[in-house]
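anyone else get weird line breaks when pasting these?? whatever heres mine. first is seq + tokens for prot A
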Amino acid sequence: MTRYLLAGGGTAGHVNPLLAVADYLRDNEPEAEIMALGTAQGLEARLVPERGYELLVVDRLPFPRRIGGPAVRFPENFRKVVSTVEGFISSRNIDVVVGFGGYVSAPAYIAARRAGIPFVIHEANARPGLANRLGSRFTPFVGVTFPGTKLPHARVVGMPLRREIESLDRRVRRKQAREFFGLDPTRMTLLVTGGSLGAARINETIAASAAEIVGAGWQILHITGEGSGLADSELDAHHMIRYCDRMELAFSAADLAVARAGSVTVSEVTAIGLPAVYVPLAIGNGEQKLNARGVVQAGGARLVNNADFTPQWVRSQLVPLLQDRAAIAGMAARAAAFGVRNGTEQTAALIRDALRGSSPSSSEVN
């Protein structure tokens, strides 16, 4: 019986692939023990127990970005967290650690190395985070979502996806999806989403441009986010909802998407062959633009900077695209060809390699 410790948390970009891998392992190894390592503050504190896994909790310890009290105390606090994880590894007889980035992954990698057990890294973003940059120096078992990700030993495995996305056939589910959202079955559908909290620039531009989009013969399924203050649209073909917990149906209803370029979003949308216009979040270290780069270069999506996504851009660029059905069909085919549907399976294969002590395959990219 294998005992797994999956480390990651804080954001959906860490928690969702962790849960996808956990579910895959549980389905294929019912006798295995699967535990997750996280904090009491991140999304994992709710999502991991809800999915039926035990969450082992450590203190949230972000890396200090400036000199001050937290920076002075960081080394000692970090050692304490590492020691706590070493205790979990020892008391639970963990066989392998799998890290998905975030605050808890760096101490997990160090604890695994000290304990003499293998550890595996999965990097969701095209531009790696600090924890995975550190950990990849000490293990040959490094999986990445996007080609060209700069990590030692990187092997492209894709993004571990939820089962409902991996198995999704948009054409088969389209009728059900459009009925679910109350959409016109005869109109082309633009899906707009800025994530669970929404994206102000996307929301404002689409709201201001809705009449032109509808005038081009389309309808809009607009997931505004729970934090949005947008007033309801007066257009019948502009369907606004605050939150969607059936994204597989939203994807199935859509012919084109406008979205942020988080790694999970890009991976899911690309895997199912949905063409997209990506509007990367204009903060952080620029990883969202890099996440979308590959599928944009492959011709399966278009990219527009957040500051440039204005009603004028919609008028001059998006509306002509909406009126070109052949271009959209071509983008869909190229997105599907670029996308990876079996990222969960490939990540599990990397974990098996680590458990066997096998050398990574020749599919390394660096």
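and prot B, same format (seq, then tokens)
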Amino acid sequence: MTVNTPKPDDRSDNVERLQDMVQNTIENIEAAHETMQFASPEERTKIEEKNKRREESIADMREEIKDEAAARENGYK
């Protein structure tokens, strides 16, 4: 029987990972804007709502980036 031990908390790449997630989300917003020109009014409303949630997520991720960057500078203590 194998005992599963948790991996040590490696936060060394969190800032970069979060930045990639922000960039991907921005690209998704831009792609959604492009598809809106071909969308029905109902689809357009759904896309706008989804993009609003994406923008909220970006704001949250940017706050987390600030927190992680500060933690990195302080040695993750």
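btw re prot B: The chain has one domain: 14-73. The chain has a mean pLDDT of 91.
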